[in-house]
Each structure stands twice: as C-alpha cells, then as structure tokens.
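Quick one, tokens below. Sequence please?
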C-alpha cells in the first residue's frame, strides 16, 4: 500500500482555494493543475508499506495524535519547489497559523513511522497544498503573478488521516483510518502531556 499521513482542509477552504487557482489557469507555461480531491496537507509520506506493518503503524500514529492539539490553520501565499532559481516543478499554496505546532505534529508522525520501522525522509518540513505540477520544470513566475494574493480564513484542524494513494483508480485517495487530535487548541494542555 502506498501511504501518507495528512490533514484535510474543510470544504469551504478548498472552495476558496479553487477560486484563487482559477485566476492562474491559462497564464505562463502549461502546467498540470491538480484536482481539489488531491488537495491536502501532507504530514509525512510513507511510500510503500506492507500490510503486516499496519497494526504497529496505526497504533503509533494514534498514540502521537493523542499528544497533539487541534491546530488553527489557514491557506496563505504561494510557493514553488524547488524554491530557488527560475525552473520549478511544483506550485503550491502555503499554510499559516499554528505552524510551530504543525511542525511538531509532522515530526511526531515521522517518529510514529520510524517506530513502525518505516523509513521516511529527513528533509525540512514545508507545509503546503500542491496545486500544480510542471513537467519538465519551468519558470512559473507568470502563473504565480496571475494567481495574485492568497489569504484564506482560519479553520480548526482536529483530525489526522492515514491515506492510501491509488493512482489510476476512480477514488485515487482512500482514507484508511482517522484519529482525532488529543485536545483542543483553546483548552489547557492535559497535565500528563506537559513535558519539558
């Protein structure tokens, strides 16, 4: 199974992002725009995972999710991978809000994967929603300029999802399991989770 762990923005956020993306269509070099069904905030990409690893993996993810709080997030700004130079292969919408807590959540999900003996990348975490790809890499400057400013409303991310990627199938992304984050952003952190 090809898996990743992600946050799913709410429908209203995805609709607002779709309106913003529509402004960039048709400008600059041709790019392949991703559909709204593919818009998520990846916390960790796991790659191919054997089914016999799932019980250990899901237990580790669930344990980490309970130690994290709900996050106040918003979609804001545009970016590219790679970020430097004139030629990029990925165009993305950025994420703002509780980014330190989001980084801690992504780190926790990486730790959960390692606890299940799944090797994951060690590159710095950049929260984003991929909106387009360019093959071969090209200058996406005109597209970014056409997209204009992006600043969405905040929402509360309260759940973490383990998602299976199934290229070529009608439902490309299938949620395998969902966990609620352990406590609300506006409530006091549980005493048993207070660690230095």
């Amino acid at each position: 199974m090809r898996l990743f762990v992600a946050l799913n923005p709410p429908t209203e956020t995805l609709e607002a992002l779709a309106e913003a993306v529509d402004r960039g269509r048709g400008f600059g070099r041709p790019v392949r725009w991703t559909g709204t069904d593919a818009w998520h905030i990846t916390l960790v990409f796991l790659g191919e995972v054997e089914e016999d690893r799932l019980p250990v993996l899901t237990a580790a993810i669930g344990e980490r999710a309970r130690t994290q709080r709900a996050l106040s997030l918003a979609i804001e700004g545009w970016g590219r991978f790679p970020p430097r130079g004139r030629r990029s292969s990925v165009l993305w919408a950025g994420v703002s809000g509780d980014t330190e807590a989001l980084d801690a959540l992504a780190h926790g999900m990486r730790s959960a994967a390692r606890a299940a003996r799944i090797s994951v990348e060690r590159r710095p975490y950049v929260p984003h929603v991929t909106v387009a790809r360019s093959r071969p890499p090209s200058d996406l400057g005109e597209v970014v300029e056409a997209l204009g400013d992006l600043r969405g409303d905040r929402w509360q991310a309260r759940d973490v999802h383990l998602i299976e990627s199934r290229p070529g199938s009608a439902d490309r992304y299938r949620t395998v399991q969902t966990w609620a984050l352990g406590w609300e952003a506006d409530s006091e952190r549980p005493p048993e989770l207070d660690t230095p």
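The radius of gyration is 17 Å. The beta strands are 2-7, 32-33, 41-48, 71-81, 88-97, 128-138, 155-157, 159-165, 173-180.
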